[in-house]
Specification:
The complex is a heterodimer. In chain A, 28% of the residues lie in helices and 22% in strands. Chain A is built from 8 helices and 17 strands. In chain A, helix 1 (13-24) packs across helix 8 and helix 2 packs across helix 5. The longest helix of chain A is centred in the N-terminal third of the chain and has 25 residues, at 59-83. The two termini of chain A are 39 Å apart. Chain A is α+β, with helices and mostly antiparallel strands. Chain B has a single domain (17-111), classed as Ubiquitin-like (UB roll). In chain B, a hairpin with a 2-residue loop joins strand 1 (17-22) and strand 2 (25-30). The two termini of chain B are 20 Å apart. The chains are: A alpha+beta, B mainly beta. Chains A and B meet through loops of A and loops of B. Bound molecules: flavin-adenine dinucleotide and FE2/S2 (inorganic) cluster. Residues 36, 59-62, 64-69, 80, 82 of chain B line the site of FE2/S2 (inorganic) cluster.
């Protein structure tokens, strides 16, 4: 039987950020990851470190996302120092491009509401076609405008995952690969992870993405997360033409163009479909007509980990103290908050922000079964 | 034309000769050759420089999967030389780094 202080279940971006953060606090951590058969949003996402629009309906989520964006340079620098890997972090601000006037007005109205809810501390700019063209000369004539968020940016999410994993193991963390956890049993002190004999852990942190839905009830918690598919296209490498990330299209560090993405409710199906890929490509060409001749070299589908309101769930079990739940839809954006703020709390520190409880799963409370 | 290619053609008198140009140099190909085969048979090893480090590359897998054989063909950048058949008068150029994103920024017209 193996023993560990913290068992982190799930080795995606959320699990590795938390595990790295715990290890950084001097804790003994073992990560259990299901393996290559698992659904992994962390390997199929869009790489945005994104603030604008997050937190509509929950201003604390806007605060938390902004905190993470502000902490990102520190995380990137630390990971680069630990591992030598360049995370390609760029935070020049970003654009949410709107093809219609109505779309632009609606986006502006949403951010206006947030701006008011946050007492005016929420930077963004609404740009019409001509002003946008000055910053992004490549836009097409059909673009109505965009919202500019000065705190938005992007990174290479695969390098991020690799850097977190490398830094974690270099600091003494252990990873059990190909280790799906099917059972967690609370014991008089600590938890048994896996079936007999399994592992003994003093504490357990559920970071299993979509797997959390099944695991949470084993430790008295509730994780109503569901899959939502996004398809993404990658074009061949080209000379730099897009100095800012946009919510729809970004040019990655080495020149490839990533085009996203769809939002589809198709259950546990992470495939691609020609119709959706064509629609994504068509929209991209309307935004930047010069993309028309580029070759698409790869495409994939990946499943988002969505809670009912789209906001993160951070919780600790009341019934079984020592069990935690961490899950969110924006695991790239929130990697810095997770590693540098949430993990120290899980390690036993004070809540990192006064509003942490807002993210509890109680907000989805269902009436108890009769 | 003598060359120092490591590849030697099988005797195959049935196939017509096709003349193409690689970076201004005349290359004798045979009908049915892929551009990559014709270039390799002519002793040319480097067909592109990578966008990231500028390292030299040439055709490798010859079956469309490695993308190391990218060249510009008749003005169209990033063509897989192993997947395109030679045509009389075809103008092929070394693919030097990343292409431009749009038609206006594509590699210069293949006239050396
Ligand atoms: C198309 C798309 C675009 C996106 N774009 C962005 C973006 O631009 N910016 C952003 O911030 N976020 C983006 N996201 C979201 C981001 O990718 C996710 O929030 C993040 O990857 C979630 O990480 P995770 O570790 O919770 O989940 P996952 O990556 O799904 O990882 C879960 C892990 O848990 C493991 N696991 C599951 N069950 C078990 C079990 N029982 N036992 C052991 N291990 C288990 C699996 O092996 C897996 O490795 C995007 C997502 C998608 C799909
Ligand atoms: S040689 Fe590999 S793709 Fe052409």
């Amino acid at each position: 039987m193996g023993e560990t202080e913290f068992a982190v279940i799930g080795g995606g971006l959320v699990g590795m950020a938390v595990a790295f953060g715990l290890q950084r606090e001097g804790r003994r951590v073992t990560v259990f990851d299901e393996g290559d058969v698992a659904y992994r949003a962390s390997r199929g996402n869009f790489g945005l470190v994104w603030v604008q629009g997050k937190g509509v309906g929950m201003p604390d989520y806007a605060r938390w996302s902004r905190l993470s964006a502000a902490l990102w340079p520190e995380l990137a620098a630390e990971l680069q120092e630990d591992t030598g890997l360049d995370l390609e972090l760029r935070q020049p601000g970003g654009f949410d491009i709107c093809l219609t006037e109505e779309g632009l007005a609606a986006a502006a109205a949403r951010l206006d509401t947030l701006h008011t809810q946050l007492d005016g501390d929420y930077p963004f700019e609404v740009l019409g076609h001509n002003r946008l063209r000055e910053m992004l000369p490549a836009i097409g004539p059909q673009v109505a405008g965009a919202i500019y968020g000065p705190e938005d940016g992007h990174t290479n999410p695969l390098v991020l995952l690799r850097a977190l994993t490398t830094a974690f193991t270099r600091r003494g963390g252990a990873i059990e690969n190909g280790a799906p956890v099917r059972d967690i049993e609370p014991q008089s002190s600590g938890f048994r992870i896996g079936s007999d004999p399994g592992w003994r852990a003093e504490k357990v942190v559920l970071c299993a993405g979509l797997g959390n839905a099944q695991l949470a009830p084993m430790v008295g918690m509730h994780a109503p997360v569901k899959p939502n598919r996004g398809q993404v296209l990658i074009c061949e490498r080209v000379k730099p033409f897009l100095p800012y990330p946009t919510a729809q299209i970004r040019q990655v560090g080495e020149g490839a163009v990533q085009i996203g993405d769809s939002k589809e409710d198709v259950g546990f199906d992470d495939g691609t479909t020609p119709q959706v890929m064509a629609a994504i490509a068509k929209r991209a060409v309307r935004i930047f007509p010069l993309l028309e001749n580029l070759r698409v070299v790869r495409a994939w589908g990946a499943l988002r980990v969505m809670s009912p309101d789209g906001h993160p769930i951070y919780d600790q079990s009341r019934r079984h103290p020592g069990a935690y739940l961490v899950t969110c839809h924006s695991g790239v954006t929130l990697a810095a908050s997770h590693a540098l703020r949430l993990a120290p709390w899980i390690a036993g520190g004070a809540p990192p922000v006064p509003y942490l409880e807002t993210f509890g799963a109680e907000r989805f409370a269902v009436s108890p079964p009769a | 034309m003598p060359n120092d290619s490591r590849f030697r053609r099988l005797p195959d008198p049935g196939r017509r000769a096709v003349a193409i140009v690689f970076d201004g140099r005349a290359v004798q190909a045979r009908e049915g050759d892929s551009v990559a085969a014709a270039i390799l048979a002519a002793g040319i090893a480097v067909t592109r420089r990578t966008p990231v480090s500028g390292a030299p590359r040439g055709p490798y897998c010859m079956m469309g999967v490695c993308f190391d054989c990218l060249v510009e063909i008749d003005g169209m950048p990033n063509c897989q030389a192993c997947m395109v058949e030679v045509r009389e008068g075809m103008r092929v150029r070394l693919m030097a780094g990343a292409r431009g994103p749009g038609a206006d920024l594509q590699g210069s017209k293949a006239d050396d």
